[in-house]
Amino acid sequence: MRLSLGGFVLAIICDFIDIALNFWSFFADHFLLEPV
Length: 36
What we know:
By secondary structure, the protein is mainly alpha-helical. Helix content is 86%, strand content 0%. The chain contains one helix and no strands. The chain is rod-shaped. Keywords: Membrane, Transmembrane, Transmembrane helix. The chain crosses the membrane at residues 7-27.
């Protein structure tokens, strides 16, 4: 049970990191890298 719970939490963390990286890439491409 503990191993299954650990894998479940790890999957959630990986998904969260993936979403965060995608959001950061979107933010950087649309706001930071555009010449003002």
